[in-house]
């Protein structure tokens, strides 16, 4: 892949990673609740999900998923259900905090659960399949080499890990501020609402063939 294609590809991937969405909400909440350790766990989970999609795209399964109405719907509904579950947990935490119940002590970091949430949030999003099927071929030469294929798989993984690693560290550094009950409730309400909204939108989304 030539530099004239490599840099625009990296730019598009980075902008996609930086756009607000379920991955960002999951990393944000785990960073705020569990600090840098949990935030990095979620960030690595999202990056691993991108790696899964890269491999899936390389072997052609992503194209099949994007083209198959049944496969797309199954993954879409599973992803929507998981987002609604995560959003419901956050909203319940916010509601519990406003119901006059005693504040719970800060939970210890749980990077394994954070990794799982980040991974499943990304892997169960069929929009990633459409993204890879629609984007990657535009930047690959007509006869791609092994190096071209490796680059198109590695760049999204590395940039995603770097971006969400920054988010995890910045938000994790603010954990004391975010531990204030009023701030925590507001954060839970915002992230929960975002996750539920994205889950509903994903469930209602029609399949588009790239």
TrEMBL record:
UniProt keyword terms in alphabetical order: Cell membrane, Membrane, Transmembrane, Transmembrane helix
Residues spanning the membrane: 49-75, 119-140, 152-174
Membrane topology: Multi-pass membrane protein
Pfam families in the cross-refs: LysE (PF01810)
Subcellular location: Cell membrane
Ranges in coiled-coil conformation: none
Main location per the UniProt record: membrane
UniProt xrefs under InterPro entries: LeuE-type (IPR001123)
GO MF annotation terms: amino acid transmembrane transporter activity
Official protein name in the record: Lysine transporter LysE
Source organism of the structure: Prauserella flavalba
């Amino acid at each position: 892949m030539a530099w004239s294609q490599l840099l625009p590809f990296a730019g598009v991937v980075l902008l996609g990673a930086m756009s607000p969405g379920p991955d960002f909400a999951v990393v944000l909440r785990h960073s705020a609740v569990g600090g840098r350790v949990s935030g990095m766990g979620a960030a690595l989970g999202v990056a691993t999900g991108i790696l899964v999609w890269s491999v899936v795209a390389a072997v052609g399964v992503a194209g099949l998923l994007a083209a198959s109405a049944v496969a797309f719907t199954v993954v879409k509904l599973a992803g929507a259900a998981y987002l609604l579950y995560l959003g419901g947990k956050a909203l319940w935490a916010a509601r519990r905090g406003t119901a006059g119940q005693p504040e719970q002590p800060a939970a210890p970091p749980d990077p394994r659960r954070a990794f799982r949430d980040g991974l499943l949030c990304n892997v169960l999003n069929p929009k990633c399949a459409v993204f890879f099927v629609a984007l990657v071929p535009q930047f690959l030469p007509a006869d791609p080499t092994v190096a071209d294929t490796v680059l198109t798989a590695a760049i999204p993984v590395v940039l995603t890990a770097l971006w969400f690693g920054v988010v995890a560290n910045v938000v994790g550094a603010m954990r004391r501020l975010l531990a204030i009950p009023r701030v925590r409730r507001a954060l839970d309400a915002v992230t929960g609402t975002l996750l539920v909204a994205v889950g509903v939108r994903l469930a209602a989304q029609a399949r588009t063939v790239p």
